[in-house]
Specification:
With 104 residues, this protein is α+β, with helices and mostly antiparallel strands. It has two helices and five strands, in the order ββααβββ.
């Protein structure tokens, strides 16, 4: 995985399997700081339902992609706005959802 891209990979349950250095930096986590492995714990409650619904459709209905404008909790405990693009590869060899984030 290209470490310069702000990218997370999720499994079908919403657990973060990997996160690039660029994504850690964008989310304001230091290299040594621990990161909760459950993706949904980082999402603001007002944005959570749509993200969970889209990911469930990726698992059950083979939805291929989704885009969100959402607030994520940073490593400093602040809420910041991000644009996220999710690409499902759950039903392919990769078996993951790739989520690219950008700060807005």
């Amino acid at each position: 995985m290209a470490q310069h891209l702000p990218l997370l990979t999720l499994d079908a349950e919403g657990s973060i399997e990997s996160i690039t250095r660029a994504a850690r930096s964008l989310l304001e986590y230091s290299p040594s700081q621990s990161l909760d492995s459950y993706f949904f714990t980082h999402i603001h409650g007002r944005n959570l339902r749509r993200v969970m619904q889209d990911l469930a459709h990726m698992v059950c209905k083979r939805k291929q992609s989704a885009r969100w404008l959402l607030r994520l909790r940073t490593g400093t405990g602040r809420w910041r706005w991000y644009r996220a693009t999710a690409l499902s590869r759950l039903h392919r060899a990769e078996g993951q959802v790739f989520v690219r984030i950008e700060r807005i």
